[in-house]
Amino acid sequence: MKVNFRCPVCGNILNEDGKTYRCENNHCFDKAKQGYVNLLQSQKSSKKRHGDDTLMVKARQDFLEKGYYQNLCDELINAVIKTESDEPVLVDLGCGECWYTAQFYESLVAEGKHPAVFGIDISKQALITGSRRFKDLKLAVASTSDIPLPDESCDIVVCVFAPYSESEVLRVLRSGGVFIKAFPLENHLMGLKSAIYDKPYKNEVSCEICDGFEETDFVKTYNKITLETNEDIINLFKMTPYYYKTGRNDQIKIENLSFLQTETEFGIITYKKV
Length: 274
Description:
Elements: E1 15-17, E2 20-22, E3 28-30, E4 37-38, H1 54-65, H2 70-80, E5 89-93, H3 99-110, E6 116-121, H4 124-133, E7 138-141, E8 154-160, H5 166-172, E9 173-184, H6 190-196, E10 213-227, H7 230-238, H8 242-245, H9 248-255, E11 260-273
Parallel strand pairs: 4-7, 5-6, 5-8, 6-7, 8-9
Antiparallel strand pairs: 1-2, 2-3, 9-11, 10-11
Helix pairs in contact: 1-7, 2-3
């Protein structure tokens, strides 16, 4: 069954009509020239800018392209390709510039699958980058708390560090579908935090099982990365929330670093919809 976005106004299926998405109630949404569609109902929010800005997107793109988080992506791929469906539908919540999303698509194709891969992010700037990265993804500017996909339409939902709505994940997943969630463990980026703060703190980790799911797998992946240029250090800093929560005096500490070693520690839980 072919899956399309659903209309954020009335909830009906959006069909592609040239460069436009249109539902049976004639609500229309034009594709941007890069290929994504904006389904965010801006009038519901007072914010003029949504999601990551150009600075944060560029920093994350440059950092991830160096492969520092490839071990995390490889573990996520291992979880994704376990799907039994020959035509899996996957949605990446908070997909950003689609560094992970594109690799999910390519890995499923390498397994002989014929996937439909959707990416949802609230940041238009991130999806501009994602659209340029890979043309076979279906991308929409939208909120992860109001996923613009039909009920029980997805085999796999992936969420890497992004906020999400449990009820929405349950709604879009088919029975037996899986929810794969990645999150930082206690000591993730402790080396970076030690370079910034006098008293670095550990991350709080919560692994509660959501109602309607059963946990089927829990993987932890550890690594120590070495950053040997100030550019890479600054990029890592800017792609974290610490950059926006840190005062100028502490920011200067990072701006003067040319070498950094730090831990990366990730947890990946796979839940099955029951």
